[in-house]
């Protein structure tokens, strides 16, 4: 059986940030002109954007791995690396984005609505940007951060004003084809429709969309036939139309019992379908027996409170009345609904709490540090470069990580793991806070640059130092 692609698993990977460059400016007769290594470029984001022209997720079914480009590394001469290009993935209106556990991350409704599914990694700072009064010629640069890679699930829930529901071959697709300009596949065997069809109808001054779903059969809400899969497409439609076949050749069916079956399925599915406004269409009245049956059954259906239309998708009889009646209900439901956001909505992943970090003891001599900043700093560190490692230690110290470790009972030589439990970087802890460490001199100073030191250096308070550390990242926050 053909499976309709309205649910795909997608593996997205944002671009990695380019590494910063460590370089020293060279000029004739001026061998040490100062650090001039540029910053790495930002990795491209992976962005899902609603595009009205896209109606299926089929493309992603065929190629489910999507990656944005990496940022380029910085270069000497203060040249920054180029940013990676964002990868924009068009998705149909009504695409729901979930994580692998089924948590909804975003519900993309409305042209242009977008969601950053993977954020590009920040570029690493070059040594020019890392230089400061205290650290005149850093012999290292920061690494670019890896882009976010993750698995997401896209699920399509058609957004239409009107949904046609009914048994297979009742004529739903035929009706869409004659009410709108859409040309869905129509055939006289059941389950012809595998993909919801969407058409645009103009009735007077009202323009509305109409969708059908593959035929429903008893048990659809439990997954029989193609059923359940498709009822979710109906969820978002504000009006339901029962399309009943008055000319079916199946002896055990008639329009009234068909209606009961479909109603039962809608109730069983729930999710609000049970109380959508609905009306009844008796189709195929161009067939003489069909017309007789329609006329016979009409009073009963009206007695149940339904507005009933006798129509034919073949002879076009009754279509105008139906189309205007639908326009009226659509207009009413629109008027009743709160005004829709007309602005372009951009949904981003939730911002991480950037404030702090936690230290937790894990067993005899292992301490785990979690926190957005410490983890990011570790990712940015080139562990083959001692100066870079020293810079990391300074940053962690300034944030108060060492202090917290001491408080938590860590002793020199204990293991400290920074990062996610399954992918942490583990250090042997050597506290640098001890008074002796301060006297060894600052890291990142090339003594060849040494200017005469003022006799008295003012000890800066901790907060000022923290502020300075943050300063370096201004302009690098992708959310700012
Ligand atoms: N005589 C007559 N035949 C019709 C009418 N409407 C549809 N049909 C025929 O009924 C058959 C099924 O029509 P479809 O429009 O494909 O039915 P459907 O409800 O979309 O069917 P599924 O996609 O299988 O659920 C086709 O052979 C149509 O030509 C009508 O008003 N009169
Ligand atoms: Mg159909």
UniProtKB/TrEMBL annotation:
Top-level taxon of the source organism: Bacteria
Gene3D superfamilies: GTP-binding protein OBG, C-terminal domain, GTP1/OBG domain, P-loop containing nucleotide triphosphate hydrolases
Domain (OBG-type G) ranges: 160-331
Record-listed Mg(2+) binding positions: 173, 193
Pfam families listed in its UniProt record: DUF1967, GTP1_OBG, MMR_HSR1
Gene Ontology MF terms in the entry: GTP binding; GTPase activity; magnesium ion binding
Cofactors demanded by this protein: Mg(2+)
Region (Disordered): 60-87, 438-480
EC number(s) reported in the record: 3.6.5.-
Biological role: An essential GTPase which binds GTP, GDP and possibly (p)ppGpp with moderate affinity, with high nucleotide exchange rates and a fairly low GTP hydrolysis rate. Plays a role in control of the cell cycle, stress response, ribosome biogenesis and in those bacteria that undergo differentiation, in morphogenesis control.
The protein's name in its UniProt record: GTPase Obg
Annotated source species: Actinacidiphila alni
């Amino acid at each position: 059986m053909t499976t309709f692609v309205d649910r795909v698993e997608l593996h997205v990977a944002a671009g990695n940030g380019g590494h910063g460059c460590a370089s020293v400016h060279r000029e004739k007769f001026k061998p040490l002109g100062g650090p001039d290594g540029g910053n790495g470029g930002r990795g491209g984001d992976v962005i899902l954007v609603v595009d009205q022209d896209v109606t299926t997720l089929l493309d992603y079914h065929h190629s489910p791995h999507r990656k944005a480009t990496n940022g380029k590394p910085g270069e000497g001469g203060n040249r920054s690396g180029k940013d990676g290009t964002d990868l924009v993935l068009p998705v149909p209106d009504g695409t729901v984005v979930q994580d692998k556990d089924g948590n909804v991350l975003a519900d993309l409704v409305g042209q242009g609505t977008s969601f950053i599914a993977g954020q590009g990694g920040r570029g690493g700072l070059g040594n020019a940007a890392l230089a400061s009064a205290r650290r005149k010629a850093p012999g290292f640069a920061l690494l670019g951060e890896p882009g976010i890679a993750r698995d997401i699930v896209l699920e399509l829930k058609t957004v239409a004003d009107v949904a046609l529901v009914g048994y297979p071959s009742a004529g739903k697709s035929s009706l869409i084809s004659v009410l709108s300009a859409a040309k869905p596949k129509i055939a006289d065997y059941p389950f012809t429709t595998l993909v919801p069809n969407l058409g645009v109808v103009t009735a007077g001054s009202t323009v509305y969309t109409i969708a059908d779903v593959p035929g429903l059969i008893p048990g659809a809400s439990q997954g029989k036939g193609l059923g359940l899969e498709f009822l979710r497409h109906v969820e978002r439609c504000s009006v339901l139309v029962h399309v009943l076949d008055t000319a079916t050749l199946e002896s055990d069916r008639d329009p009234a019992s068909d209606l009961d079956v479909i109603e039962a399925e809608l109730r069983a599915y729930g999710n609000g379908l049970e109380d959508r406004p609905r009306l009844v269409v008796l189709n195929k009245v161009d067939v003489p027996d069909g017309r007789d049956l329609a006329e016979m059954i009409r009073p009963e259906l009206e007695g149940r409170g339904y507005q009933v239309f006798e129509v034919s998708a073949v002879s076009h009889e009754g279509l105008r009345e139906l189309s205007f009646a639908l326009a009226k209900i659509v207009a009413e439901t629109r008027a009743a609904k709160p005004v829709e956001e007309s602005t372009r909505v951009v949904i981003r992943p939730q911002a991480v709490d950037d404030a702090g970090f936690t230290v937790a003891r894990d067993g005899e001599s292992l301490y785990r540090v979690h926190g957005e900043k410490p983890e990011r700093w570790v990712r940015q560190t080139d562990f083959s470069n001692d100066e870079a490692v020293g810079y990391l230690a300074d940053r962690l110290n300034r944030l108060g990580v060492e202090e917290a470790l001491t408080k938590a009972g860590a002793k020199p030589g204990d293991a400290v793991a920074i990062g996610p439990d399954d992918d942490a970087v583990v250090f042997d802890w050597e506290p640098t806070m001890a008074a002796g460490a301060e006297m060894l001199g600052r890291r990142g100073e090339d003594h060849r640059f040494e200017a005469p030191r003022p006799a008295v250096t003012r000890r800066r308070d901790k907060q000022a130092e923290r502020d300075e550390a943050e300063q370096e990242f201004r302009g690098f926050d992708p959310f700012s």
